[in-house]
Amino acid sequence: MVKALLVLRQVPVLDDGSLEGLTDFQGGTLAEDNPPVTFEASVNFVQIPQAEALLHADCNGKEVTCEISHYFLQATEKAAWFITNVQVSGGGPSVSMVMKTPRDVENGALLHPTLNLPLSPQGMIQTAVELQVTTQTPSLNILMGSSASLPCGFSMAPGMDLTHVEWRLRHKGNGELVYSWTRGQRQAKREGAALQPEQLLVAGDASLALPSLTLKDEGTYICQITTSLYRAQQIIQVHIQASPKVRLSLENKTLPATLICSITGYYPLDITVTWSREEPDGAPVPVSGASFSSLRQSAAGTYSISSFLTVEPGPAGTTYTCQVAHSSLEQPLGASTQILPPEQKTAFGVLLASSLFLLALLFLGLQRRQAPGGVGLRQVQIQSGDHFLCQHMDLLS
Length: 397
Prior knowledge:
The protein is mainly beta. The protein has helices at about 50-55, 200, 340-370; strands spanning about 5-10, 35-40, 65-70, 80-90, 95-100, 125-135, 140-145, 150, 155, 160-170, 175-180, 185-190, 195, 210, 220-225, 230-240, 245-250, 255-265, 270-280, 285, 290, 295, 305-310, 320-325, 335-340, 375-385, 385-395.
């Protein structure tokens, strides 16, 4: 492992006014005590659709990592090949490039001491990008049940043909073929998987469409592009998520009461549950002492758990809130309920019973007005809970 530097030349970038003040890269690395191996790569033959992200990475506070390795093709004395993997931090694009370096030595040209390749007067190895494979983002978070498009694009130098496109999935040590395309012949191993139409594929779009995602679709996807000369790939991590559902219920009505916060149907496993209480005209205060049930997993692979909290009402009633934070949620999800003191509950019960009694009297009045002539006997009994309220007997005339 040695220090290296990659300089991309002739990269077409849209000038939106942000290029003012940028200076061209200058060589001169040979003057350093321990100069890096510098590759000056021309991109005249291919397109790099995410070049703006590479150009403005430092301005946006993002880093660019770059690894350059030998690309072993057939042995030849006329050229050498390297493969470069470039990644922008923070979920930015990832680019893999195959570079061809001629071995022709001009009269008086210097050779690199370890690579034995000719150097330019500025001390750089001249090379050209002949194939690139790009993904817009190396990681995707997708809700279970939805559809997804896994981005994978490529560009190759003139004179090369696309021969094979392959998508594979690796998860928990297992690998399987998802989709393959070979000179017009398509094979989908995963039901519903599809590539772009033929004309878009040949034009450089090898994105994979997956409908109705389940937890079985989670894992590492590999997009591999094979041409008549080279092969390169991109890796995309797919994380399946399921949002929790939160329901708050009262286990027993006698004091001290127990609240149950049921959290169901979430994935992945990590979840945070917090409780708070709020008095009238007060701010929410965190509450500790909650207990949890054992973890449950459904046949679909999602998780469920319950949290229990023993609660006491304040003098004017207290509102309790169960709040759940999960990676699938932009904001925490919560459910609230109000616990009233016993005297407020009794007053509420009397008010409810009085309302029922008045409704019953109104009903009897209507019946008396609508009933035909004659004499009848009607008995009405109104109850609330276990307390007898009223028994009314009336003659209908």
